[in-house]
Write a sequence for this structure.
């Protein structure tokens, strides 16, 4: 059955529409970040007098006072930016590392009793907001309120589920015989884990790592509630640009753009690790 | 000293006994074939010998030393699984050198050993390529190279030829035997194909549902299967089995009655069997087909004939029993033809009706 | 003369840069079991899939019952394909599996029941009708898959290496059962396999393929006794045919092959038919069963080793550094390693192939 021309044109049109639909908000945000105050509320796509002021003002929050008298923005963007990086990276590392070992165990061994892997999904079954109050209480009692350690702990605990499930899939795809063969070839069990399983499951680590990093990086709800002054992360900082008396669109676009670029850069740098030529199965020429 | 001894090895999983009192010895430089249908326990047995599983009871002895509890990475055996560990993202060379790198040997030593084994196996020219470019035969040879590069004491092969084309399988059996002769490595080769086991093994172990039924040289296996199950298992094309009554037991022979015919076969069996019913078995190759009646022949109707190249396999119906016989290919045999079958008396084997053991 | 049920005309199919099927044409007659045979990757499965309608050929047409079906989807072609892994639905009963194809057509429940029971009876599945298909044996699963196909009464039954994944003992039994069933039902079948013995045992006719091309079509006997080239000669027959390479010298009453040594092939025979081949670079072929030990044997050599092959023995004889042959001998023949022996080849069974092209130069038996 061959496809005639007409369906192909329709499909091409649909794809174009979809691309426009997805990209337009991003394009708007980029242009907004270069627009001066007067143009923040105009409908033009391109700024008529492009300026870098918005970006400068990220570093000097006092300058915002020319727009709005009082804001909650009390520090330059470097603070929240570094804190977000630290929290996201460390939470990702914890989730991925512990997740890897758990996934390996879940894949290779059958656990007796009722504590199946299914339980790890429970944290994701209720709306996160239901956990707000209990977590808030725990954190204040434990002194983790307004503390990046608290955020790290929370993020790694809630995202480890994804790490386990993604990596278990990759590990399941490795034939057990390969590990047994490595044992025969002289590798001790721990060597088997690091020299056989890890290299082959590496795409799984990278995929889950990226996924978890993104979740931690963009997390707003708990960060808003659990931080005050000392542990403010980037999403919280961005939210502050919409104040009670007005929104600072341009600067907000600028900081948002900064926050969006970082994951893109990280993703680009590690993309080659995602492709390892996964071809399992015997080949019969 | 016998190289490897498997002593009273059993393996149970809960209530299920997977291996039941396995006993055999392997001499240095020998090929032992382990044959059995899928599920018989061959892989479990091989893994116990490899050290990947521990037996529920029994011991494995290497040159007199008890190695039952030595972990696999200290045994210096190699195992090639049905799905060999060839990593797809590395070249042939990198795959073969893997076990040597685990041992942290110097690079020059590794290079020499890999090239030596590659030359021996005739795969030097494909070392630079990735596995997905290999043919089935090349793939298996790289897997073998990886197993042999560590100069193992024993090479364990778990159905290594299963995934190969029939023609290539044939070539590989010859090639493997040749290789083994040159390297003088001790091999244990597991397969589901009894014919493969008998062509490749110096000795053959027949494993049926976890029980070691027989351990013999291939020729002995064919001439004297110890019980009916073994006889049925090793016969390809399928064995003919029917009930007969032993009319008379004489000193050097016995007279059987089948249908209305009496056959005298040369054998020594116990007088207790006189008058009793037993199973008789005969292979298709030992039945002759005639177009006209012969003394002592059975009459039957041809169901079909299948060409096999050198001869043909004929399926005949006698009183609703299906009999298979091999005929010369010149014979024109058509469906519904009437033919007369003569059984070679010296090739009939008798088995006890209840125990299924060979009574000859 | 039988009716032509399937005609395949000049099929070409490429995947990227690889030509999987290269100008393949053949006909299949009613009630025939036609086999596509060849090593892995030769294009036989792709050809089968083109016939089924799962692949669209780049060029060429497929005719079923003289109707051009090339542009029709599989379900409109009235053919049925049994896959390598049988593809029975494991959680459904055998009955439901067989009834599956019928349910989508507008047939009454009573009729469906009748048909399913008929086919189940034919394939000896009556006792298993209510078992879950995943729990029955492999042979029964295959019969269920076939039953599922037969019940919709297709013009053609296509089977893609159905016995490849099965172990040796069961495979042997299924070869007999499959052939018997095919003949009893009179179903026209196209069968794909890489196993030459299987092809010989099952088929009415065989088409040998290699690297996408059709090499030879014929009955099993024709292909076995008269391979058209070196490839077919070496592929068909187990153990493989013996090959000796050299220059052929034709004398008045003898035929000699000049290899690294001079090998006497025939004496006292009328060699006129071979005259044109004098001086040609050839490859001589003869099967192990067409040579025998004889005191008058012309080929002399030393026994390298012996092996048991069922009811006979095979001896490997080294004739020279480059020439080694295998010969069948009696199981009880008193011959052992190191013995010097002389071999005689049946002159009617000597094949001569051109060294360059591999093509048969002279039909054996001339």
């Amino acid at each position: 059955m061959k496809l005639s021309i007409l369906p192909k044109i329709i499909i091409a049109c649909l794809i174009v529409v979809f691309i426009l639909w997805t990209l337009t908000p991003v394009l708007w945000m980029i242009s907004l970040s270069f627009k001066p105050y007067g143009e923040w509320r105009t409908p033009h796509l391109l700024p008529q007098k492009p300026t870098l002021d918005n970006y400068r003002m990220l570093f000097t929050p006092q300058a915002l006072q020319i727009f709005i008298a009082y804001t909650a923005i009390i520090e330059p963007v470097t603070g929240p930016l570094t804190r977000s990086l630290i929290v996201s990276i460390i939470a990702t590392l914890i989730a991925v590392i512990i997740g890897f070992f758990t996934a390996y165990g879940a894949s290779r061994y059958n656990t007796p009793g009722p504590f199946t892997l299914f339980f790890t999904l429970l944290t994701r079954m209720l709306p996160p907001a239901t956990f707000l109050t209990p977590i808030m209480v725990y954190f204040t009692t434990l002194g983790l309120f307004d503390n990046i350690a608290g955020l790290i702990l929370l993020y790694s605990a809630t995202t480890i589920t994804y790490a386990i499930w993604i990596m278990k899939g990759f590990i399941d795809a490795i034939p057990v015989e390969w590990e047994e063969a490595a044992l025969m070839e002289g590798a001790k069990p721990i060597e088997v884990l690091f020299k056989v399983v890890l290299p082959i499951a590496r795409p799984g680590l990278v995929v889950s790592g990226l996924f978890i990093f993104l979740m931690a990086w963009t997390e707003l709800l708990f960060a808003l509630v659990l931080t005050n002054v000392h542990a403010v992360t980037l999403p919280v900082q961005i939210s502050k640009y919409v104040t009670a008396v007005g929104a600072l669109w341009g600067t907000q676009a600028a900081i948002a753009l900064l926050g969006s670029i970082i994951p893109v850069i990280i993703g680009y740098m590690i993309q080659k690790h995602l492709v390892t030529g996964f071809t399992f199965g015997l080949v019969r020429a | 000293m016998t190289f490897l001894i498997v002593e009273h090895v059993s393996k149970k999983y809960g209530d299920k006994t997977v291996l039941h009192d396995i006993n055999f010895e392997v001499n240095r430089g020998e090929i032992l074939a382990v044959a059995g249908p899928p599920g018989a326990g061959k892989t479990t047995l091989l893994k116990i010998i490899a050290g990947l599983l521990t037996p529920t009871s029994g011991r494995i002895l290497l040159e007199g030393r008890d190695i039952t509890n030595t972990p696999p990475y200290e045994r210096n055996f190699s195992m090639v699984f049905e799905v060999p560990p060839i990593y797809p993202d590395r070249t042939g060379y990198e795959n073969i050198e893997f076990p040597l790198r685990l041992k942290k040997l110097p690079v020059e030593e590794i290079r020499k050993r890999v090239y030596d084994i590659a030359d021996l196996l005739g795969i030097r020219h494909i070392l630079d390529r990735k596995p997905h470019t290999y043919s089935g035969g090349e793939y298996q040879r790289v897997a073998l190279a990886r197993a042999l590069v560590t100069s193992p004491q024993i090479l364990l092969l778990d159905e290594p030829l299963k995934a190969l084309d029939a023609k290539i399988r044939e070539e590989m059996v010859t090639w493997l035997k040749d290789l083994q002769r040159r390297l003088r490595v001790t091999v244990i080769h597991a397969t589901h194909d009894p014919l493969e086991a008998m062509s490749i093994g110096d000795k053959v172990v027949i494993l049926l549902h976890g029980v070691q039924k027989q351990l013999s040289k291939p020729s002995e296996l064919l001439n004297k299967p110890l019980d009916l199950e073994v006889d049925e298992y090793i016969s390809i094309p399928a064995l003919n089995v029917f009930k007969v009554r032993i009319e008379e037991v004489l000193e050097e022979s016995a007279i059987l009655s089948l249908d209305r015919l009496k056959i005298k076969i040369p054998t020594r069996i116990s007088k207790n069997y006189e008058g009793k019913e037993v199973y008789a078995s005969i292979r298709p190759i030992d039945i002759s087909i005639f177009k006209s009646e012969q003394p002592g022949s059975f009459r039957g109707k041809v169901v079909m004939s299948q060409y096999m190249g050198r001869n043909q396999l004929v399926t005949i119906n006698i009183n609703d029993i299906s009999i298979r016989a091999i005929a010369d290919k010149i014979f024109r045999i058509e469906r519904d033809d009437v033919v007369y079958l003569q059984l070679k008396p010296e090739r009939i084997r008798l088995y006890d009706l209840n125990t299924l053991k060979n009574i000859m | 003369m039988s009716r032509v049920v399937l005609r395949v005309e000049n099929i070409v199919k490429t995947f990227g840069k690889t030509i999987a099927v290269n100008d393949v044409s053949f006909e299949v007659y009613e009630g025939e079991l036609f086999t596509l045979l060849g090593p892995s990757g030769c294009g036989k499965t792709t050809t089968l899939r083109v016939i089924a309608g799962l692949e669209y050929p780049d060029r060429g047409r497929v005719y079923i019952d003289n109707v051009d079906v090339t542009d029709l989807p599989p379900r409109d072609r009235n053919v049925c394909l049994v896959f390598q892994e049988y593809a029975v639905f494991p959680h459904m009963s055998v009955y439901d599996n067989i009834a599956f194809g019928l349910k989508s057509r507008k047939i009454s429940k009573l009729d469906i029941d009748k048909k399913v029971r008929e086919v189940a009876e034919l394939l000896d599945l009556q006792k298993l009708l209510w078992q879950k298909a995943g729990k029955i044996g492999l042979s029964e699963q295959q019969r269920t898959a076939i039953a599922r196909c037969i019940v919709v009464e297709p013009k053609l039954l296509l089977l893609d290496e159905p016995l490849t994944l099965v172990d040796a003992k069961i495979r042997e039994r299924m070869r007999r059962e499959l052939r018997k069933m095919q003949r009893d039902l009179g179903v026209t079948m196209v069968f794909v396999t890489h196993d030459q013995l299987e092809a010989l045992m099952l088929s009415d006719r065989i088409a040998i393929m290699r690297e996408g091309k059709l090499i030879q079509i014929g009955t099993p006997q024709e292909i076995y006794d008269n391979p058209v080239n070196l490839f077919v000669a070496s592929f068909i027959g187990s153990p493989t045919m013996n090959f000796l390479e050299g220059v052929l010298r034709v004398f008045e009453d003898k035929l000699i092959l000049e290899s690294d040594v001079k090998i006497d092939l025939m004496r006292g025979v009328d060699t006129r038919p071979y005259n044109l081949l004098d001086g040609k670079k050839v490859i001589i072929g003869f099967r192990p069963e067409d040579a025998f030990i004889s005191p008058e044997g012309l080929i002399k050599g030393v026994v390298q080793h012996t092996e048991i092959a069922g009811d006979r023995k095979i001896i490997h004889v080294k004739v020279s550094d480059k020439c080694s042959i295998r010969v069948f001998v009696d199981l009880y023949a008193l011959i052992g390693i190191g013995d010097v022996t002389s071999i005689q080849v049946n002159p009617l069974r000597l094949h001569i192939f051109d060294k360059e092209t591999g093509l048969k130069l002279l039909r054996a038996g001339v």
